[in-house]
Amino acid sequence: MNGQQSKVPPLRAPRLRSGRTAGRRAAIRRLIRTRPVPTQEALGELLTKEGYQVTQATLSRDLALLRAVRIQGEEGRLRYELQEGLTSHGAQVLPDLAEMVVSIEENGTLVVMLTQPGSAPALARAIDVARLPDVLGTLAGDDTIFLAPQKRSSAIQLAHKLRRLFGRVET
Fold it and tell me: What is 88-165's CATH topology?
């Protein structure tokens, strides 16, 4: 080529939106409401297709702020669902999640919730998102949640509040 090089611009990847928090969160809400989204990875892929570039940490924060929890759907598969009925400090009963609760017991120090198999992570997340002032923390397995009450709250009081939150009848 006579010593001259062709000046063809390099190919670029499509430009992705990254700083549009409100738009991204609206997209997350819409995606979760309109289709089963089983994992953060799947949600990230759907967002990328829509032009949103998101890290796992950002997606985690968005899901927490949107009060999204993973639940077991009718077909037995896990999926995200928006818990729009949750209010701060557990002021509202969570009837949609109540069917996953098998029992709530306490031993004076700790509260133990037994759940349907595979439901403990979703329930623990709902409790964490509700930010109950009596809960210091939750630890979830597959079908068991350990709840530590705050120092100023007894396990008996916490168990009572959890039963009310999940619409369980006091025995």
Answer: Gyrase A; domain 2 (3.30.1360)
